[in-house]
User: What shape does this take?
Amino acid sequence: MELLSNTRKALLHPLDFFYDIQFGGRAKWSHAGILLALMVIVHMLRISWTGYSFEGRESYQVSFLFESFWILVPWVTWCISNWAVSAILDGEGKFKDIVVSSAYALLPYIVLSLPLALVSQILTQGEYTTYYGIYTFIQCWVIFLFLAKVKILHDFELGKMIWIILLSLIGMLVIWFVGFLIFGLVNQAVEFVIGIVKEVQFRL
Amino acid sequence: MQAGLSKAVVVWLVCAALLLGIPAAASANSPYDGYIWNSRSDSPSINGYLYKDSIDGYDLPSGPFKAPEDIFINDNNSIYVVDSGNNRIVLLDSRHQLIRVYGDEEGPGKLNGPKGIFVKNDGTLYVADTQNRRIAIFNHDGVFQKEIKAPDSPLLGANFLFSPAKLVVDKRDYMIVANDGTSSGLLQIDPNGSFKGYFGSNMVEFTWQRFFVRLFATDEQKAQLAAVRPQEFSNLYQDQEGFIWTTTLGTEYNQVKRLSAVGVDTFNPDWTQVQNRKKYGDIFSYGSFDIASFVDLTVDDKGIVTALDLSTGKAFQYDKVRSLLFVFGGLGTQNGLFQTPVAIDQTTDGSIYVVDKTRNRIDRFGTTPFGDLVHEASALFVDGRYQEAKEPWRKVLEMNSNYDLAYSGIGKALEKEERWGEAMAYHKMARDQYNYSQSLKEYRKEWLRENFHIVFISIIVLFLVLRFGVPLLRKQWGRWMPPKESAQGNVTERSGS
Assistant: This one.
C-alpha cells in the first residue's frame, strides 16, 4: 500500500518524493527489491506483448537471463559507482537511499511500457513515430528521474550534478573492467587448480 | 503344386523389383544438404537441384577437356565449351555429341588461352582470346572472320592492357567486355573495334575513415595511400530482354546486378540505403570464412537468377525479387560437388551446367519435383498472380513447412482475397514484419467499420465514467479513508533546509 502511494508521488511530484525519502526511514530495501523484480518482469512481458509490427523476436528467441542481466548489472553498478563517487565528492546521500531511489526512478518504465505494448498491437509500421515517440518519452522520463534523484539526494548544484553523473558513468566502466579482469583471473586460477588436481591424479 | 510354384515366382519377382527399386531411390541421395536463408538464419530445405551427369570429353572424338573456363548455351541448347587449356572452342549439340571445334587450326584464327565466349543468334562466335589480347570472331561454320585488337582511346589510360576475359554482344553489335584488371567498368567496343566508353561502373562507397585520413594527410602521405578503386566485374550475362547482368568480386553485398541501358543497377534498389543492400550467397561463414565471390551467373526467361560462388563452390538461385530459392553444390570430390567451379549456364529445359576447371569437366544438374513446384509457384508469384500461386505454394508447404517464401506467397494471396486476419498470420509465419503491418492496417480498418457501434458506445461510456464516475468514487474514497489521506497528505514540509 505504501509502495502504491509512493509510486503515485514519485510519478507526480518526483522532486518532493526524492527529498522525503531520505527521512523517517521511508527508504525500504524491500521496495527496491520489489521494484527491480517488477522491472524485469515488465521488460519480459513488454517484449512478448509488443505487436509483431515492432518486435520481430519470437518468445523462444528471447533469453530471460540475457535480458535481465542487461537490466540488473548496469543498475547495480550505477548504484555502487554513484554512491562511491558522491561519497568522495561531498554528496549527502546514504547508500540505502541511493539504491531505493534508483529503483523508484525506474517507475515510468514499469508503469507505462505495458500499456504501450498493448497499444502497439493495433499500431502499424506507418505509425512508428507514435510508438517510438512514446517509447522515447518513457526513456526520457526515466533519465530525468535519475538526474533529479542525484541532484536532490546529494543536494548538488546543477553543474556539479552533471559532473558527478559523468564520473559515475566512468566509474561504471571501471567497475565492469575490473569485473572482467577478476573474472578472467579467477577463471585462470580455477583452471590452474583443476589442472594440478588432474596432473596429481594422473601421477598417482 | 503348380499354384505354389507360380506364387513363389511372384514373390521372387516382387523381391527383385524391391531390390532394384531401392538403389534407384538411394541414388537420389545428394552429397549436399538443401537449405535456404530465412530472415534470421539458415534453415534446412529440400534440394531443388540434383546432380545428373557430367561431360568430360573422353568419349568425344575431340578428346578430353583441359581447364575449361566458360560455357555458352544457345537457344537450341547447343553447348559451346571454352576449352581453355586446349586453346579451342568445342561445340556440342543438345545430346552432348560433338558438332565442331573452333580455333584449333594454325593460322590467324588460332586461339591462345581463351576465357570467354558469346554466340549471336546467327551463330557468329565472339571469343575473348585472352592470351592473344584480342577478340576473335568466327562464323558458324568455324571460319575465322576477323579480330578486334586493343582499342585506342585516351580514356583507357596509359597503363591499359587489353586482356578480355568475358564478353557479350548486344543488339547493336557492340561488344561489352569485362577486361581483366580494369575496374572502371565494362568496355563498350563498337563493331569496328573502337572504344565507345565504359558501361555500368561499380561505385566506391563513402567511409568516414577514408574521409578523415584524406582530411589530415599531407600530399606526400596521400600519394603513399593505396588508390581506392571500384570493385571489378567478374562476369556478365545478357538475358532474353537484352539486359546485361553482372557479378562483382570483393564486396559483401549487391554482388549481382542487372544493368539498364545506361548502366544503372535495376535489380537492387538504391544501394546507398543500408537496408536495401542484399548479401548474396551465404550470409555469414557457413563452413567457410570467406565472403562470397561470385564468378558467373545465368538468368532464365522467367527472370530467375542462378549465381555461382567460387569460395563456397555453391550455386545460389534467386527469383526476380531477390528471394533465395535454392542452394546447391559445394566443394568436394563427390559427384555434385566441385573443385573450382568457374562458369554456369542453363538450357531451356531448366538443366544447369557448371564448369569445373580443376576436374576438367562440366556437371549437369536437373530440377527435383520440389524444385519444379517452387519454380511454378514463384513464377506466378513474382508476376503478381498471387491467387493462382496459392495452390502451388500450399503444395510446397506440404513438402517443406520451413519454406518461408511460401508463407509469404499465401499471405499475399489472402490479402488479395481481403482475408486480412489470415494474411497477418501467414506473414507472421514468414517473419515478414512489413507485410504483417500492412495487413494489420487493413484488418484494423475493416474491424472498425464492422464494430463501429461498439467503439462509439464504449467511447461514450468511457467519457461518462471519467467525467462523473471517477469524481464520485474519489468523494466516496475520501469519506471512507479520511485519516490515511491526512496522514499521507503533507509530509513535504521542507523544514530542514
Notes: Residues 20 and 167 of chain A are 26 Å apart (CA to CA). Chain A has a mean pLDDT of 92. Chain A has one domain: 2-203.
